[in-house]
Amino acid sequence: MAAFSSLTDRLSNAFRHLKSKGKLSEADIDGTIREIRRALLDADVALDVVRSFTARIRERALGEEVSQALNPAQQVVKIVDEELTGVLGAGVDRPLNFAKKPPTVIMLAGLQGAGKTTLAGKLGYWLKDAGHTPLLVAADLQRPNAVTQLQVVGERAGVPVYAPEKGVQANGGDSVSSPGLTTGDPVKVATDSLSLARTKLYDTVVIDTAGRLGVDETLMKQARDIRDAVHPDEILFVIDAMVGQDAVQTAKAFDEGVDFTGVVLSKLDGDARGGAALSVASVTGKPILFASTGEGLKDFEIFHPDRMASRILDMGDILTLIEQAQHQFDEDEARKAASKISQGTFGLDDFMDQLQQVRKLGSMKSLLGMIPGMAQHRKELEQFDEKEIDRTEAIIRSMTPAERREPSILDGSRRARIAYGSGTTVSAVNSLLQRFEQAAKMMKRMAGKGGMATGIPGLSGSSGVKRGGKKNKKKGSRSGNPMKREAEEKALRDRLAKRGESSSDGSAFAKKPQNPALPAGLQEALEQGGMPDLPPNLGGGLSGLLG
C-alpha cells in the first residue's frame, strides 16, 4: 500500500530499538509511544484519534500483559496491531447488504475527483465476477464527460450502463449534441433505472451520483433526493485516501447529509501520506467495506481491518494472497501440474502456464508486497521489472515443441536461435533455463515432502545440516588413501574440463543465476527465507520467475 509506506517505515523504526531490550521500562514505552504519535500525526491521522490510540497503547503496555511476557518487544507490537485494527474498524468486517427482493440498489456518494465513476466500474466487475448481474447508472449529470466515462468503464468491465442523458449544449439558441455537457434530472434517471432493472432482471443497480469540489447544500440536496427516491440498500461514501485532514470533516458532512452505510477507500496506490483515511471509520463509526488499490478493474478488494493493520506494520497479508491464488488458479490444471511434477514430466509449456496464472493475480510488486518484512526492500521492489514475464513467454514461444519438452537438447546454436527469435540475449535464455531447472527441482521436492518450505532456502531448517544432525561432507575434502585421492583428483579434473567446454557454448554457468530484472537486495532477501508457505501453483510460479 503505497499510501501507507511512510507510516510503515516510521512505525518500524519506532519498534526497532525495542528488539534488544530484555525488559521494558516506563521510559522505553514512553519513547516508543512518542515515535508512534509522531508517525501518526505526520501521516495526517486525526488528532483525537491519535490521542485515544496512544493512550490505550500506553495503558496496555504498562500493564501485566507486557511485564509478564516472554518477549516484551513483540508484545508491544501485538498491542499496536490490535489497537490499529480497532481504529480501522474491528468487528465490522461485513459483506454488502443485498436486498431480499432484487434489485439491490447501491448508491455512490462523495466529492468530485474521489474516483466514484471508476469505482462504479470496479464494483460492477467485482459483482459480475461474484455471479451477480449488475447495472451501472449514469446519474452524474453535473461533471462534463461523466456519462461518457462511465460508459467506457462499463464497456471495459463488461457491465451494461443505463445512460439516457446523452448530453446537449445550447449553441446560438439551437440545441446540438455534445458528449461533454449533459442536462436532465438525475433523480428521474435513478428511478427509471430501477424499472429497467426489474424488466431486464438485473439483480444489482449501482448508481453513480454527482460530486462537487467541496461540500455544499446543492450537493447534499441532490444526494438526499436520489436517496429518498430509490431507497438504496447501501450508500457507499467514496473517499480519496490521499486527501489530508479535510477528509474527516468531509466524512462527517456526508454522514450527517445522506447517512451513508459504508466507506470505500480509493487511490491507495498513491504516494501521499494517506493517514486521514485511517480516521474515517473511527470518527464516523461506519465500516470500511472496500479498498481500491490501483487503476485496473481487478485492483479492488474487500477491506479487512486486521489484514490492513498487518500490512501497515509490515507483517504481510498472506491470507489475501492465498485467497487470490485460490480464486484465480484452476484446480484441474493444478492437479495436472502436480501429477507432472511427481512424474518428472514437468516441461517449459507447464512452466509458462504457471507464470500466466501468477500474472492473473496482478502486479508482481503487489504480490511481493504482501510478504512479511518486504517494506525494508521497497527500493528493490520499485526497481522490479514487470515485463519479465513477457520476456519469459517470448523465449519459451521461440522454442520448438520438442525443445519445450526436453530442454536438455538445447545446445549453443539452438539457444542463439531462440535468443534471436525472442528479441533477447543468449544469457537471458541461459538464465531462464537455469531458473526453470531450479524451480522444477524445488517443486518436485515440495510434491514429495508435502511442504513449500522444504524447497525454499532459509525455510527448511539449518542450512547444511542433515536430519540426523551431521554436517554435510564438504565438496573439497580429500581422501587419506593415495590411490583413492588420485582417482578423486582425476574425476575433479574431468568435471572441470567438461564444465569449461559447456561454458564455451553458453550451456552452463559456475555462478548461481539471478533474475536480471530482480535487484540483488531483493534476490538475497528471498533466498534467505523471505517467502512463506504458499499454494503450490503460486509458489512454483513465483520461484520460477524470481530464480
Folded structure, characterized:
The protein has 547 residues and is of the alpha/beta class. Helix 8 packs parallel to helix 9. An eight-stranded mixed sheet has the order 3-2-6-1-7-8-9-10, sandwiched between helices. Strands 4-5 form a two-stranded antiparallel ribbon. The chain starts with a helix and ends with a helix. It contains 24 helices and ten strands. Strand 8, helix 11 (277-284) and strand 9 form a beta-alpha-beta unit. The model is unreliable at 167-180, 451-476, 502-523 and 525-536 (pLDDT under 50).
SSE layout:
Elements: H1 5-16, H2 26-42, H3 47-61, H4 64-67, H5 72-88, E1 104-109, H6 116-129, E2 134-138, H7 146-157, E3 161-162, E4 168-171, E5 174-177, H8 186-200, E6 204-208, H9 217-230, E7 234-240, H10 246-258, E8 262-266, H11 277-284, E9 288-292, E10 300-302, H12 305-312, H13 318-328, H14 331-343, H15 348-360, H16 364-369, H17 378-382, H18 388-397, H19 401-405, H20 412-422, H21 426-449, H22 482-504, H23 520-530, H24 536-546
Parallel strand pairs: 1-6, 1-7, 2-3, 2-6, 7-8, 8-9
Antiparallel strand pairs: 4-5, 9-10
Helix pairs in contact: 1-2, 2-3, 3-5, 5-12, 6-7, 8-9, 10-11, 15-18, 15-24, 18-20, 20-21, 21-24
Overall morphology: flat
Structural class: alpha/beta
* Percent in strands: 5-15%
Q: What does the radius of gyration come to? A: 29 Å
Tell me the number of strands. Answer: 10
| Main β-sheet, spatial strand arrangement | 3-2-6-1-7-8-9-10
